[in-house]
Amino acid sequence: MKYLDLNGDHCELSFEKNAFPFESKHVLVICRYHKDWVLTRHNERGLEFPGGKVEADEKLQDAAKREVYEETGVVVSQLEWFAEYLVYTQNPFCKTVFIGIADRVDNISLMETQGIVLREKIEVNSDFSFLMKDDGMRKIIEKVKQLEKWNH
């Protein structure tokens, strides 16, 4: 699926692994804690799914778990590859999307975010980051909601 993000950059979304000729160096994690969606409130952008950059010599799954923990205090146990998208900026980059289940929430010190926000439903509104409002993210959320294990 091709779309424009809200920065005006061309993007491509795929639900197949290794669909792009770029190594993924960013992660995004969509996870549940009990029956709620795990979000974080970024200090500048608003509500969004946790994620970030992969550190040198770090595996994607390790980066995903670390980013969720650093931004929310959530410990993710089950983590699965779900999708990836490519953003054609001046320096194109690929981001891997994971889905996961959270075991617990620790009370930790946070830097970039105001911590965990749990929502029963994802209804993107003005409280949400612009990163949550493009066609690619809408498609990702729609497909995650269709997974049987998320409907319990």
From TrEMBL:
Looking up Pfam families in the UniProt record yields: NUDIX (PF00293)
Q: Which InterPro entries match?
A: Nudix_hydrolase (IPR020476), NUDIX_hydrolase-like_dom_sf (IPR015797), NUDIX_hydrolase_CS (IPR020084), NUDIX_hydrolase_dom (IPR000086), Nudix_YtkD (IPR014078)
Hydrolase as a keyword of this entry, yes or no, is yes
Q: Any idea which UniProt keywords this protein has?
A: Hydrolase
Ranges for the Nudix hydrolase domain?
12-152
Among its keywords, does the record have Hydrolase?
Answer: yes
Q: Which GO terms describe its molecular function?
A: hydrolase activity
Q: Which PROSITE patterns match?
A: NUDIX, NUDIX_BOX
Question: Which family is this protein grouped under?
Answer: Belongs to the Nudix hydrolase family.
The protein in question is named: Nucleoside triphosphatase YtkD
Give the taxonomic lineage as stored in the record.
Bacteria, Bacillati, Bacillota, Bacilli, Bacillales
